[in-house]
Amino acid sequence: MSPLLLPILILLGSAAVIYLACEFFVNGVEWIGHRFDVGQKATGTILAAFGTALPESVVTLVAVAFGSTPAQKQIGVGAALGGPLVLATIAYAVAGWTLYAAKRPLSSAGAQADFKGLSRDQGWFLCIFVFKLTAGLIAFAFKPWLGVLFLAAYGAYVWQETRGEQGEAEGELEPLKLAPKSEHPPTSLAVVQTVAAVLVIFVASRLFVGQIDTLGQHLGLKPQLLALLLSPIATELPETLNAIIWIRQGKIRLALANISGAMMIQATIPTALGIFFTPWILDPALIVAGGVTLAAVILLYLGFRSGRMSRGWLSGMALFYAAFIAIILGMGLT
User: What is the rounded distance in angstroms from the CA atom of residue 236 to the CA atom of residue 263?
Assistant: First the structure.
């Protein structure tokens, strides 16, 4: 039997488990948002994004705080840069492809208001990400204290999202999966379902990442490059699957808000961890990743800001990830 067969089978199995857990997660988190009157966009950007961002945040924390070698700590830095890259390119592209497959238009009666909110998210991300990259190019003594600023920036973003306009609810609220016959299930049951789903997503994501690591070793990839190229695709799988599920249900605002909210977490919390526990100096591959991410997000910002965002525009974001791989290979950074 091929040594790659078992990792591939475990990879596919864990991906299936993550998808099923995401079905329970998105259902539970919608009920929690409904009960606390959070609003649909904030449900996606804050509640859903925080839950699904746990796997990649834990990967960064374990690598930078408990890594015993500089190479292991660099894996955490790579994950902190790779997450936003994958979200801005692959995750949005998958959303575009799903919109095509589900035959759902991106425009709607409230699309312009949604686009305005999403462009604001991208604007927040751009400001923070530029600061994040600049900090990675310069060495100075008080850099660890900058981690506090990144945490404060995320706190400000959460405050703004929870105080923003809610807009009209999109689609019907499906029955809670743990109480399918109850029209008004208890909030505690929705919390239990959501927390249980997050735990399953966390365990399955760790298993998924482990198999990615195994495959990367067989392919001869450097640990840092593995963290930048493959691990983020694995750890951002919950956000991507959430987008597929919500788009299938016709809840496009939730799908796109979940991705933009996850990007904000990736721009702040893992970065703060990296700055606290490492020198936070970016190597050439990470600088390329940061540059491609900036270019992709600028295009997203312009698309949402102008109101011209379309399914094709979202689908084309995958070209940025392809360009990143081509640059990495062309520069011999593998």
Answer: 10
Question: 26 with 181: CB under 8 angstroms?
Answer: no
Amino acid 137 reads: L
Tokens representing 65 are 């705080």
d(C-alpha 330, C-alpha 324), whole Å: 10
In whole angstroms, what is the distance from residue 47 CA to residue 282 CA? Answer: 31
| CA atoms of 279 and 295, how far apart (whole Å) | 25
The Cα-based distances of 38 to 1, 198, 223 in angstroms read: 52, 20, 40
Q: What is the pTM of this model?
A: 0.82
Go through the chain and tell me how many residues it has.
334
- The type of residue at 314 is L
**Helix, strand, or coil (residue 184):** coil
pLDDT of residue 252: 87
pLDDT (0 to 100) of residue 10: 85
Give the whole-angstrom CA distance, residue 171 versus residue 34: 13
Beta strands in the chain, from DSSP E residues, in sequence order: none
